[in-house]
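Request: Give me one sample?
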Amino acid sequence: MLKNINKWWAYGGAIIFVLLNAFFIYKEFFYFSLIPIVLLLVVAAFLALDKLLLALVFMVPLSVPLSEFGLNLPIDMFLPTEPLLAGILLIFILKLIFEGNFDHKVLVHPVSISIYLYLTWMLVTTITSTMPLVSIKYMASKLWFLTAFYFLATQLFKNKANAQRYYSYYVYGLVIVVFYALYRHATYGIFQEKIAHWSANPFYKDHTSYGAILAFFIPPVATMTFIKVSSARKKFAFGTILFILSMGLIFSYSRAAWLSLLGAFGLWAIIKLRIKLWVVLTSIVTVGIIVLFVAPNLSRSLKSNKQDSSTDLAKHVQSMSNITTDASNLERFNRWNCAIRMFKEKPVFGWGPGTYMFQYAPFQISSEKTIISTNQGDGGNAHSEYLGPLSEQGVLGTVLFIAIIISTLITGFRAIKNCPSYELRSLGLAAILGLSTYYAHGILNNFLDTDKISAPFWGFTALLVAIDIYHSNKEVKEN
């Protein structure tokens, strides 16, 4: 009898929903139709959070900003990912309150501690912010990115098979975007540089963020293509994907992405050749001294370069050092100088997290403005993951972000050294190389306020922490 009663409750609930939904559709209120999807996601979050997290990773490259739907709202977010991330954050907090059983090893890991310090200072500068509501929204998004892609991801990577799944799911979504962007490029009959600026829109707002993520994932895909333990079929599949991503990177015309990938290749060579750290540091210092001596001649040489961005790839590469007429390069200097002036005015607490784009306009100097500068200062952020926090959160903001990078690299190198699994060592090295592309790219751009970059940035960081905690020689011996 109880079974029949439950069955009739299910039938009755379904009929009521259908009738209500029909009514709301008649009234042109379509959002009621989303209720079953929301309920399904809530159930998945409680019963199969690992699968929901992997599904979320697949959705990240395909997420679209709310502003693309023409709604005049005071806030913007990526759909469907950020509402899901906010929900996961809430569930994570509830689980901590009522269960309190999150792995202590993750909570006290040096990378986690550096993240706590970073978030604590962000909270302080949110309280002192010149635009509190903007800073609260910024910090909230940072919390849900870290919850899903760092803390929960460390538990996902307890199962070493999920490392390759995490890479793969994002790449599968990214390949769809690359085909979409290349199709839009080809539609105009020629792969022009200007088309690259919007070819991946609305999934990636411009060619710089699009190029950054392609450079980010080329090392992991290359690893999965050439790793010894992969089957021939899997190597062929990932080799094909590697070719597709490489084509996307070339025709993104993102010079910063090209340079960051070159830097990752240099790091790979240093690791493979087992070059000592003191040799690397000595080389860096030597190069720095040489640059100081040749700085006057170098400056004259750079100013004599008049090559602007171009469809011709060789000329486009040459335009990287054009600091005289290339609008993109000059605007980047404009934004950096604004960030430094903002820092000088508020060196301790900064202007508040997420406020740069609303506050930098008065700090522009007419002689530094370009044809793409705006008097309203509504052209975006500081174009630097290091100068942005400097202006928004003071000197500690940048120092603590760099502390996360340093602790991650130390963890990563220790993890791949102590891990007995060849496959995990290879995937860990791929994570280090992928992260290094963004550490370098972060000098010229900043995208960590989006799900597009946060998913791999914090996810790869989580993988290195998980290898260090769960898959090192020490852990194997203890088990």
Notes: The longest strand covers residues 64-65.
